[in-house]
Amino acid sequence: MSNRLLDTMAVCVAGMLVIGLTMGTVVAQTQEQEPNDDFDTAQQVAEGDIPGEVIDGESDFYQIEANSTDAIDLDLAERDGDIRVRLYGPDRSELADDISGGSRSITQKAPETGTYYVEVFGGDAQTTANYTLNLQKITPAENDAYAPNDDFESAAVLSDEFSDGKLWGGESDFYRVGLNANDGIELALPERNGDIGLRLYGPDRSQLASNRFGGDRSIAYVPTTTGAYFVEVVGGDQGTTGGYTLRSNRTGVPPGTGSLDVSLDPSSIQTNETTTVSVSVTDSGSGNAVTGATISAQDLGVSNVATDETGTAALSLNATAAGEYAVSANAGGYAATTTTLTVTNGSESSPPAAPDDPTQRVLQITEKSNPGELTQNDVTVVITRFNRGQSVNNIDIDQNDVTATITLFERN
User: Fold this and answer.
1) Which of 32, 144, 159, 235 has the fewest CB atoms within 10 Å, counting from its CB?
2) How far apart are alpha carbons 16 and 21 in whole angstroms?
3) Rounded mean pLDDT of 28-32?
4) Where are any strands of DSSP class E within 110-184?
5) Residue 143 · residue 137 · CB < 8 Å
6) pLDDT band, very low/low/confident/very high, at 132 (cuts 50, 70, 90)
């Protein structure tokens, strides 16, 4: 076999290997880049595996952006020496470390939005070893069905007897439930993975009861006033990560204790034109869509149109008179909410007919009140629209309009 043929076969085989690697499922890893020995030289990384090496006990620093609704998960799954990891917040103060135990992992809820720093370091000054750092950012979409619900404002409505959730890195999960006076509530964690407890808060958000992390993770309480109460599922420490099942004998929100956000698209229509207006209804606390809310606009002949599973209702409207029209939304457990639809006369928004006077044509095209207001940008816009064959305010822009615009601008 000739050398030329052998060379050709080698090239073909190499090409097949490259194609195979390109088309396969191999995922490229982020490689450590030196220097990255301190905060100021920290290497910016994304999620995934990061292979690196610690030499003579040095530190390797990495940085990643995270939101206050995220959790950061770190794991030194592969290491061939005494390698450890720490996590720092945006102010570069230490949030967590793994110096005790052999897992060499950290899961921490991000307390604020910003840049977080990860330090991989040797156990002593002589440590030289390879490692692979797995870095993951847990977003609300990857958390559980109720996230983000880590404070009173974002508390999820406790709508089912059993709610399955998960805590990441010491976060808290908040739920909202309506209680009438003398209606006792019983809360329990029949299933939990980790040191997870319960707290109950009143309508004024003051703590009413806690299970105090004893063996029985349950609360029984009889309220004396009607209102919206809050349940907090909380970890035993800042590193608690684990799933749980919350059971409550009370669900829902009593009338008038919840609030709705209602938006219209479009929020303004014209008279004597049939227009479809989309009404979106969400829970103002959690931002979740409210299904089954009834939409009414009595003065426009609309009543009790229900929102769908996306919290949206479509209204076909045709108003004969200009004015401000009330559009109301009602849903069980919420105070009635009203927003305003503006209706204008069709003629009010119609531009006047094209004038014959060159100056008036320029002013109508540029929407200026006098030639002294013309700018270089106006000239550029008129030229561009002329080149594109566009019409503006009932005027088909022609070469004379371009010339008149330039002349008037230069005069002023």
Assistant:
1) 159
2) 9
3) 57
4) 114-122, 129-138, 156-157, 162-167, 172-179
5) no
6) very high
| Residue 411 confidence class, pLDDT cut points 50, 70, 90 | confident
Instruction: Give the type of residue at 342.
Output: T
Radius of gyration of the chain (CA): 32
Same fold yes or no, 43-138 and 143-248: yes
Residue 254: the pLDDT is 61
Over pLDDT 70: what percentage of the chain? 87
> Do the Cβ atoms of 167 and 263 come closer than 8 Å?
no
In the chain, the amino acid numbered 9 is M
Sequence-ordered strand ranges (E) for 180-311: 185-192, 196-201, 207-210, 218-221, 227-235, 242-248, 260-265, 268-270, 275-283, 294-297, 302-306
Distance CA 231, CA 176 (A): 6
Phi, psi of 20 (to 5 degrees): -60, -40
Specify the pairing of strand 43-44 against strand 59-66.
parallel
- Residue with the bigger pLDDT between 258 and 305: it is 305
Question: Which pLDDT does position 252 carry in this prediction?
Answer: 79
H-assigned helices in 307-370: 358-366
Angle in degrees, 0-180, between the axes of helices 376-387 and 399-411, rounded to the nearest 10:
170
Instruction: Report which of 282, 230, 229, 227 is spatially closest to residue 255, judged by C-alpha positions.
Output: 227
50-79 residue pLDDT tens: 999 999 888 999 999 999 889 999 998 788
**Alpha-carbon dihedral angle through residues 240, 246, 250, 254, given to the nearest 10 degrees:** 50
The whole-model pTM stands at 0.55
Provide the greatest CA pair distance for the chain.
Answer: 96
Q: In the chain, where are the structural domains located?
A: 43-138, 143-248, 260-347, 353-411
Topology adopted by domain 260-347? Immunoglobulin-like (2.60.40)
Please state whether beta strands 172-179 and 83-88 pair in parallel, antiparallel, or not at all (unpaired): unpaired
Distances (CA, A) of 187 to 161, 175, 212, 251, 305: 10, 12, 14, 11, 36
Query: So what's the pLDDT on residue 5?
Result: 35
143-248 carries CATH number 3.40.50.12370: no
Dump pLDDT digits (tens) for 370-394.
Answer: 999 999 989 999 998 898 888 888 8
Which comes out higher in pLDDT, residue 286 or 66?
66
